[in-house]
Specification:
heterodimer; A: nine-stranded mixed β-sheet; 6 helices; about 25% helix; about 30% strand; B: alpha/beta; Rossmann fold; seven-stranded parallel β-sheet; five-stranded parallel β-sheet; 9 helices; about 30% helix; globular; binds flavin-adenine dinucleotide
């Protein structure tokens, strides 16, 4: 069984966001990492190989050359090979374009199980993986906190609002990871060294016969939230402070 | 392309989800700008009663798809039913709540229709020409304005971002659509659905949230906060640290790796205000911080604060709210 994992390189969540001269987030100063949700997907794939359920893990990323660092990280965790699909010209592409490129790449590589994080923490769109599943015409189990794979089927425990769904799908299928799926490992030094020799291929969309379509949505502006002036602090005894707070919530904020 | 707009009416525990009238108020100006009608769509089985309820949402028409394949929710069956229904109705734009079901189904519908989608919308910038919507990115540290470039599109809307549309005086007409997913194309099997009683109010849709962190000191600390939540009709939230410490079930977690919430009032009790926590609640309309540490980062984004021990502050707070709300 072959597993393909979709991975995106994102800002660390601690990163300070600043806008550059053109009004776009300035990424030159921030540290970039494997999208935390994709890290759960990579870990799950590696565990499936360790449990002898799968044979091979390929990690695919649409991104610039700098994303190779994140792919090496996945290889150091234990993935077998990596593919970077070059994003030149697609820097501003929307989810529909990204999905069409990734679907084309995944299709030509072949896979039995497709894994991904359910959302990327930078753009917060949660569209790409599901769109890829639709393009590949495969079923999905989305936002999974526990996964079992056996006999050509995947069973996933999906955390939904107020309930847990246990779903079974035949392979090939897409499974996207939630945070509680596993605990990603830290690569050991020997594995970091080994990862340097593992295959990392660089492709262009055209290598998969894909001519990326035009975006259907476009970011026209980034804004930083206005800095809050700091809280109005109510002093005095707990009873006095509580009374003043409730008064402000009623009369000033008008929320109760 | 058609000018009509379709609002997907999500059903949960035998009722219409609270985000639905908010979708109607997001959709109405879009429909007016396009000169189109506003349809509400319900899918499921045995949902006639709920369709009658949806008829008072303030929409122009209600469409219902009923089929045994839709009795249990699956993305495959729902995406197919919604896609077929939107084509049948000639709807050009579709609105979903950014709920679990919205996240699971809306991108599939968008892809099946071959249209663009904007997820987790928190506001409308403009409706004329190409509509432009607002949405948070980078864990709430920036906001983008996103334009749709084609007349057909899908958006998913964060709960509590729009006011609820007022109920209509007279009910809209209801039509039943004879569309059904092809059962041979539904590969997903629902083995089990475990409904969690995470409290009566759903966290993501709650208007008020009382949230606790490590400062509550233990599971009994959440029991201590519960009467405050009850007097306000609020949902109970928590930090991740409190979840990891086993104080409360993970379904209460707010933050980057928990629920994203946007209530009108968020009361943070004994929560330091780590960036990952703020990521899930910074768009709350009014934030209150109660913390012993005057340097706690939560005070930076709070509107109001009390520097003090929550175990001393919460009891008089409950009394004050009781006086105010229950006379
Ligand atoms: C990848 C990643 C994802 C994460 N995702 C999330 C997430 O989704 N949600 C989340 O919340 N966190 C998340 N975290 C964890 C986050 O970084 C913080 O560790 C966590 O939010 C801290 O929780 P806390 O505020 O309850 O605890 P602490 O930081 O320990 O703060 C406790 C606070 O309580 C105050 N206090 C103590 N006693 C009292 C008292 N008697 N009365 C009043 N105040 C008191 C203290 O002054 C302190 O400010 C994530 C971290 C990482 C690395």
């Amino acid at each position: 069984m072959k597993i393909v994992v979709l991975m995106k390189q994102t800002f660390t969540t601690e990163a300070r966001i600043e806008l550059d001269g053109s009004g776009k987030p300035n990424d030159s100063k921030v540290k970039k990492v494997v999208n935390p949700y994709d890290e759960f997907a990579v870990e799950e794939a590696i565990q499936l190989v360790e449990r002898k359920v799968a044979e091979k893990v390929t990690v695919v990323c649409l991104g610039p050359a700098s994303a190779e660092e994140a792919l090496r990280q996945c290889l150091a965790m234990g993935a077998d090979e990596a593919v970077r699909v070059d994003s030149a010209g697609l820097e501003e592409a929307d989810s529909s374009v990204v999905a069409s490129v990734l679907a084309g790449a995944v299709k030509s590589m072949g896979y039995d199980l497709l894994l991904a994080g359910y959302v990327a923490v930078d753009d917060n769109a949660a569209q790409v993986a599901v769109r890829v599943a639709e393009l590949l015409d495969i079923p999905q189990i989305n936002v999974v906190s526990k996964l079992e794979v056996a006999n050509g089927t995947a069973t996933g425990w999906r955390e939904a609002d107020g309930r847990t769904e246990v779903l079974e799908v035949p392979l090939p299928a897409l499974v996207t990871a939630d945070k509680s799926l596993n605990k990603p490992r830290y690569p050991t030094l020997p594995n970091i060294m080994k990862a340097k020799k593992k295959p990392l291929e660089i492709k262009a969309p055209a290598d998969f016969g894909i001519n990326p379509p035009a975006s259907k949505t476009r970011v026209v502006k980034y804004e930083l939230p206005p800095p809050k002036s700091g809280a109005k602090i109510f002093k005095g005894t707990p009873a006095e402070a509580a009374a003043a707070l409730v008064k402000a919530l009623r009369e000033e904020a008008k929320v109760v | 392309m058609s000018n009509d707009i379709l609002v997907f009416v999500e059903l949960q525990n035998g009722d219409i989800r609270k985000v639905t009238p908010q979708l109607v108020s997001a959709a109405r100006p879009l429909a007016e700008a396009r000169g189109g009608k506003l349809h509400a769509l319900l899918v499921g089985e045995g949902i006639g009663e709920l369709a009658r309820k949806a008829a008072t949402l303030g929409v122009d028409s209600v469409a219902v798809v009923e089929d045994p394949s839709l009795a249990d929710y699956t993305a495959e069956a729902y995406a197919e039913a919604i896609t077929q229904a939107s084509k049948r109705l000639g709807a050009g734009a579709l609105l979903f709540g950014n709920t679990s079901i919205g996240k699971d189904t809306a991108p599939r519908v968008a892809q099946r229709l071959g249209v663009g989608m904007i997820s987790d919308v928190t506001g409308t910038i403009s409706t004329g020409g190409n509509p432009i919507f607002k949405r948070p990115v980078y864990a709430g540290k920036a906001v983008t304005h996103v334009e749709v470039l084609e007349s057909s599109f899908v958006i998913s809307v964060r709960a509590n971002s729009y006011p609820s549309a007022p109920a209509a005086a007279s009910p809209a007409p209801i039509q039943s659509l004879a569309v059904a997913p092809d059962p041979s194309k539904i590969r997903t099997k629902v083995k089990e659905v475990v409904v969690r009683a995470a409290g009566k109010v759903d966290l993501t849709e709650a208007d008020i949230i009382v949230s606790g962190g490590m400062g509550v000191k233990g599971p009994e600390g959440f029991e201590f906060l519960r009467p405050l939540a009850e007097v306000l009709g609020a949902a109970l939230g928590s930090s991740r640290a409190a979840v990891l410490a086993g104080y409360i079930h993970p379904s209460h977690q707010v933050g980057q790796t928990g629920k994203t919430v946007s209530p009108s009032l968020y009361i943070a009790c004994g929560i330091s205000g780590a960036i990952q926590h703020k990521a899930g609640m910074s768009t709350s309309k009014c934030i209150v911080a109660i913390n012993t540490d005057p340097e706690a980062p939560m005070f930076e984004i709070a509107d109001y604060g009390i520097v003090g021990d929550l175990f001393e502050v919460v009891p008089p707070l409950i009394e004050e709210f009781k006086k105010l709300l229950h006379g």
